[in-house]
Design brief:
The protein is an alpha+beta fold. The protein is 21% helix and 40% strand. The chain is globular, with a radius of gyration of 23 Å.
Length: 402
Amino acid sequence: MADIQQDTRVLEFRPYITQPGKRDEFNALFEALVPELESRGQRILGQFRDARDPNKFLWLRGYDSMETRGKALPAFYNSPVWKQAAGPVNATLVDIGDVRLLKPTDNAGFTLAKKMTAFMVATIYLLNAPAEQGFTSFWKEKLAPTMAQAGAPSVAQLSTEYAPDNFPRIPVTKAGEHAFVWFAAYGSPEEYQLHRKILSEAKGWKTTEAELAKYLASPTQTMELIPTAYSLQRWGTPFKYTLQGTGDVHDFDFLDGKWTMVNRRLMKRGVGSTDPKDWDVFPATVTAHVLMNGVANVDEVLFPTKGWNGVTFRHFDLAKKQWSIYWVNSRDGKMDHPGQVGGFDGDVGLFYGEDTDGGRPVKVVYKWTKVGPDGARWEQAFSYDDGKSWETNWVNEHRRVK
């Protein structure tokens, strides 16, 4: 299986339309083929259900070069495995068109490893000239910072790969256009809608939007995407229980100040709930103070619709280079001891500990994600099987009050 840390230099953006009600069947058949696909030199970099169309599915296939693509595709599509699977797979599909051949816009290559979240959005700009002729500079200098400021930092961006299609048996149907595609990661659809609201109200957005329009050959397109469970497990930030995680004394400096918060909390934990109605959504406000040059910080969280509040205390052990986090709830005044420990790696922090849930012992993880300069996301997940699997049961999205 392909090394998920390898850089991808060529990517196929492949939206499919399935037969009505056949999307999950297609996904199951497809995922069974992933080992064979990757053994032939392909990299399956993400599979997603379209949140707005129950019969639309997107998957991403990558290669380290066009030369590899030219060898990997016939190796798979001429294989006995595909000859046996082709009939059942094709029977679930209506259309496999709208395929784009893309390349990363920077030298780092394309990957969603440790970037994929429960809700992703792909934004597609169809340009009136190649991205390299002015748009890439506009993106880096103005558009990307604007999106990040509004809570949507780009986690990956690509533009059209103009090399000739070297496997016309499955044609690239969007050859000849000038595309720029970028991905943003969110904790929920609600967080994406919040981004859109903040962007529409942002000072200077109308001017930036007008400048963007000058580069476009057609209106902006978006795809709201829900990763498959397999894809999210593979490409999301993995939870690996440890009490040895480390960080930096300034990991939480960003938290200083006042914030608004939208919470989503799972009301039926530990029972495998998949019903959206099992999630309670409610507001909160946060006031945070960073103390002792970063060594400690404290925040007070007010839940106006719940009738209770909470305080978080965090301190950094300079010798261990490790954070400890403790929570106190106003309902009982007790501190959750021994709390959670860990630290940040880049914009993501993981903190692990142990607790009980309704008398059941659980392992706990807090995941912090910095979302641009004025946003953050906190998630809590429990493991009821000693870290083998995890259920996220509380997510909150922070926006800084200015």
